[in-house]
Design brief:
- By secondary structure, the chain is α/β, with parallel strands linked by helices.
- The protein has one domain: 3-Layer(aba) Sandwich (Rossmann fold), CATH 3.40.50.150.
- Helices cover 40% and strands 22% of the residues.
- The strands form 2 sheets. It has a 7-stranded mixed sheet, sandwiched between helices.
- Bound molecules: S-adenosylmethionine.
- The site of S-adenosylmethionine (SAM) has 20 residues, from loops.
């Protein structure tokens, strides 16, 4: 099996990809940030990622999003470069920025010229590779952009809720994007036996109210307005009220895959 080809197939066939890029919607970004808050994210993942960093380090954060890693790391290290294609995600990151040592590059990683960036102590990509078609080229570029370490945070296995709601409302199988095992094997076929650490994480879904939940899933599923009541009823049956928000508890695992360069 060629794992890079397998990765490409999963990216291109992913049910989520077919519904377009959610990160360019202001509403989605707001909702995304709400999830981070209610899932104690990045929590333990951040503790583990920052273990080898100090005040002299530099970090290149690929797919920095709203700054879950970039912001706390910037308080710890000398400088952070945040690569992020979504203007909407960056607006949120900039709003929360409380240091002056973050350089922002508003591009996809694929479009960043290697001459635009110096080599960083750590290259980090947290949950940002699910849409990268040419994973081998992206990984090789990450390796050439670091002095010591590439650190990849990625989900382990599919989320049951997605499979269920997809079957129910789209009458089709849900095709998840690639996950940990694919990325590990792509690296392995490149001759890299990476280190892996599994971390238990919460994947709770949180909504401010039922209307937000309905809107989010109607867009995600590309559902006709006539089915809105059915969707509302289903979501109400899955969500519980807790501390003023609607909530669905779910637990999972994320993997931290790290590649250390020889010193
Ligand atoms: C799930 S979010 C993760 C954000 C952040 N790393 C975190 O852990 O919260 C994925 C982010 O990756 C970005 N992204 C997607 N494709 C990318 C690419 N080709 N290059 C760089 N960033 C990308 C998206 O715009 C989005 O902000």
């Amino acid at each position: 099996m060629n794992w890079s080809d397998e990765w490409r197939k999963l990216v291109l066939g992913s049910s989520l990809r077919k519904k377009g890029d959610p990160f360019t919607s202001g509403e989605f970004v707001e909702w995304y940030d709400l999830q981070l808050e209610h899932n104690n994210y990045p929590g333990v993942l951040l503790d583990k990622v920052q273990r080898h960093l100090n005040k002299h380090s530099t970090v290149l954060d690929i797919g920095a999003g709203t700054g879950a890693f970039a912001l706390p790391l910037a308080r710890l290290v000398k400088a952070v470069t945040a690569v992020e294609p979504s203007v909407e995600m960056l607006t949120c990151l900039r709003r929360k920025m409380d240091t002056t040592n973050i350089r922002i590059i508003n591009k996809r990683w694929e479009d960043v010229g290697i001459e635009e960036i110096s080599r960083h102590d750590m290259v980090l990509a947290a949950h940002s590779l699910y849409g990268t078609v040419d994973i081998e080229t992206a990984l090789k570029k990450m390796l050439s952009a670091t002095k010591t370490q590439v650190c990849l945070v990625i989900g382990v296995g599919p989320v049951d809720f997605y499979a269920d709601i997809w079957r129910r409302f789209r009458a089709e199988e849900y095709h998840p994007p690639p996950s940990f095992i694919h990325l590990y094997n792509v690296l392995y076929q490149l001759g890299i036996a990476a280190n892996v650490e599994m971390v238990k994480v919460s994947r709770n879904q949180v909504y401010l109210n039922i209307e937000q939940a309905v809107k989010r899933w109607q867009t995600r599923l590309d559902l006709r307005p006539e089915r809105e009541d059915e969707l509302r009823e289903y979501l109400l049956s899955c969500l519980e009220e807790k501390e003023g928000v609607l909530y669905r508890k779910e637990e999972g695992k994320s993997a931290i895959i790290s590649v250390e360069l020889p010193v």
